[in-house]
Amino acid sequence: MKFAEKLDLLMNITSTSNSVLARNISMDASFISRLRRGVRAPAKNVNYLQVMAAYFARNCRAEYQKTAIWETIKSSAKVQTQETTTMEELIHKWLREEDEDKANSIDKFLTGISHIQFKKNEPAAAVAMEKPDGKAFSEVEVFYGVEGKQNAVLAFLSLVLQSKKPQTLFLYSDEDMGWLSENRMFTSKWSNMLAQVIRNGNKIKIIHTVNRSLDEMLTAIKEWVPMYMTGSIEPYYYPRMRDGLFRRTLFIAPNTAALTSSSVGSRTENAANFLFTDKDTIKAVLGEFNDFLSNCRMLMRIFTPFSNDNYLALLAEFENEQSNAIVKTDSLTNITMPPNVVECILSRIKSPNREQLLSYQLTRIENFLSSLQKYYFTEVISLPEPEKILAGNVVVNFSDMLNDSLIFYKPEEYRQHLLNIIQLLKNYKNYHIHLTRDKHLEGSMLYIREDVGVLLGKTMPPSVVFAFNESNMTVAFWDYMNHLINEKSQSKMNRYRILAELEAMAAKL
User: Fold this and answer.
1) CA 418 and chain centroid, separation
2) Would you tell me how many other CB atoms lie within 10 Å of the CB of residue 373?
3) Is 111 part of a structural domain of the chain?
4) Do 18 and 72 fall into the same domain?
5) What pLDDT digit, counting tens, does each position of 251-305 carry?
6) CA-CA distance, 28 to 199, in Å (whole number)?
7) Per-residue confidence at 136, pLDDT binned at 50, 70, 90?
8) Least confident among 16-25, 194-203, 348-357, 500-509
9) Can you tell me the distance from the alpha carbon of 343 to that of 131, in angstroms, rounded to the nearest whole number?
10) What phi-psi label fits residue 237: left (phi over 0), alpha (psi between -120 and 50 degrees) or beta?
């Protein structure tokens, strides 16, 4: 269970309102509401979880309340109930148990993103518009079970591939995804056919299910990355919680066919999957999808070097949000670059918008320095070897988003950038550096603003950046980076040692 679900359960069992809990643990009711809705997650080692546990333990007086909590917590593999002596201790352990799977999921995702190779998909074989018995499809066809769903999906895509006029496909499924991922042969065929659908000029609007496990969610996004790179897909999500009992699949090609199915929980083995080619039925199913879509939000935006203007606008909007921030890239961040170095680097690009880029970057730096007065900014840096800097082989961060090719630091430019970081450390108490010597997550960028959103991407060509503002993913990545910093990097007490190390590097250049 997620923390929000645990808190909601405890509050329902004890008939506790947000305001009552807030008053008893000396916190703001709006913060309790955000915790309860999953908009916020508790940071590590916070004190209020102990106070919460004490409150709930005191208010579980009836046997039915104690039994309900005990049975729920007992199902957790991470809380050893036999070692717990009091209800307060039991609840406290349950509320603060760490979800290591979440960190592992993010690790796998970022590693996968950094190693993506954009291979050319094999052309999808044309699938005849026929049933296995050789007869043409009628206006309604029924396919049963997991294998039936796979056959129905292939039939749906084959019909789309045979359509001569490009259209926008509408896809949604919160059913168990075993039908898609557990048969490699089918998965390969499905992905190749879908890629061919996009190459034929079709667009896709897809509603992702964000109340799946984080691992499922990130795996699904990673699998879709090559197709996202085409710019032909708009991903959405439904922002409210759902219980996941009754589940639905809707695949619609408005000019061609609609595929629908439903199931209870993860029970898809005997479910019926309906393929419609009747125009009135397709129109009705599309209306259902659009009603759902009207309640959804954009899940993420995807940027490549071919859409750099949009990326720069999004980056400016992201950084204008007043919030604490953590950033990790393979090179020094552009936001800490001194103005003279910005001018030197931009003088080497071929863009006719060079002056606008200079003005844009100087405004970013000005806003960054202003935000340091109130909010902290933490930068995770892995310094290259001095020989690599002196040889001019250090890439300017995301320079291919501004230029046709990568731009490299001149040794003096890198030294000036390093000296500027040293001055930031000396002049701004809210600016922090964490030096790391391992190559963990090399090839990826992660930039998070607390309670705002996440920018993550692949740093080497072809660069790609994903922008998320979905609250659960923002919290997950924020907690992940805080854990990474606390586990691998120096504490703030080592600020002077970090300064000394940076100054020693600058002296070698």
Assistant:
1) 31
2) 9
3) no
4) yes
5) 999 999 999 999 887 777 888 999 999 999 999 999 999 999 999 988 888 887 6
6) 52
7) low
8) 348-357
9) 64
10) beta
Number of structural domains found in the chain: 3
DSSP for 475-493, written as a single string: HHHHHHHHHHHHHHS--GG
Quick check: helix, strand or coil at residue 219? Answer: helix
Element (H, E) at 505: helix 495-507
Cα dihedral: 67, 8, 18, 21 (round 10) = 40
Full residue range of the structural domain in which residue 159 is found: 118-298
Token pair, residue 214, equals: 């984080």
Domain boundary among 261, 277, 298: 298
- pLDDT mean over 57-65: 87
In a domain, 336, yes or no: yes
Q: Whole-model pTM above 0.85?
A: no
Q: What are 404-429's pLDDT values in tens digits? A: 678 899 999 999 999 999 999 999 99
Confidence of residue 73 (pLDDT cuts 50, 70, 90): confident
In a domain, 112, yes or no: no
Residues 289 and 324 in one domain: no
Residue type, 252: I
More confident position, 235 or 209: 235
Last residue within a domain, chosen from 70, 98, 126: 98
If DSSP states are collapsed to H, E and C, what string results for 194-210?
HHHHHHCCCEEEEEECC
Residue with tokens 């959405």: 236
Residue 71: give its domain's CATH number: 1.10.260
